[in-house]
Design a protein that fits this description.
EC number: 4.1.2.4
Strand order of the largest sheet: 1-2-3-4-5-6-7-8
Largest sheet: 8 strands, parallel, barrel
Strand content: 5-15%
Radius of gyration: 16 Å
InterPro entries: Aldolase_TIM (IPR013785), DeoC (IPR011343), DeoC/FbaB/LacD_aldolase (IPR002915)
Protein name: Deoxyribose-phosphate aldolase
Shape: globular
Order of helices and strands: EHEHEHEHHEHEHEHEH
Structural class: alpha/beta
Keywords: Cytoplasm, Schiff base
Organism: Microterricola pindariensis
Helix content: 25-40%
Number of strands: 8
Amino acid sequence: MTETSNYSDLTLTPAEMAPYIQHTKIDVGATRAEMVAHAQEAISYGFNAAMVPASWVPLVAAELAGTGIGIASALDFPTVGVMTSAGKAAEAAEIARLGATQLDIGVQLGWLKSGMFDEFREDIAGVVRASGIPVKVMLELPLLTDAEKEAAVELAMEAGASYLKNASSGQIETANPASVRFLVDRARDGVLVKASGSIKGYAQGLELLRAGAVLLGTSAGIAIVTDSSDENTTSY
């Protein structure tokens, strides 16, 4: 279901969108009970994965054991590019050891903008090697020039990224078909695209999948699959 990006004619009911959604909960101060409930929601609705802070990965991994639902976490986030490369790799290895099956990472935008391409690439590659699990690279496209976007995509793929992401959250960009298509058009065989950023409703999600995304990162997954989004729905 998530092995191809040729989805221009894709037709899904809201409930059928669940396997494409990474059910996200990264609220500051979320409690143990809330994280257990989040994992149970992933099971109940059949989401692709539960995306949670690294500190809650062991708990969520235990809740999801045997379900086939992924355990995703994020690194060098929400403020991207602030960790050392060595620290990033070490934390990536620990997150994988704790039970994460996927990892979304921030990148060193300042290095990219400084022309430090080798360092930018190796920062990502170090995480790929250390974790041994699929790595999704949050490229923060709106913060880059056209030339920087092209370089970032190529360097991320050279580093071994499994997925390209348009942005880390809605604070950077509301996920849109144009950004998804930009990444899909440049992705090499085997490299997939995840859309992220203020994905709040079924119609929006379907547009992103039709543009070529194979995963949607959103905290509004339940509203999407029940088609109950309204003007008060929020999502990071």
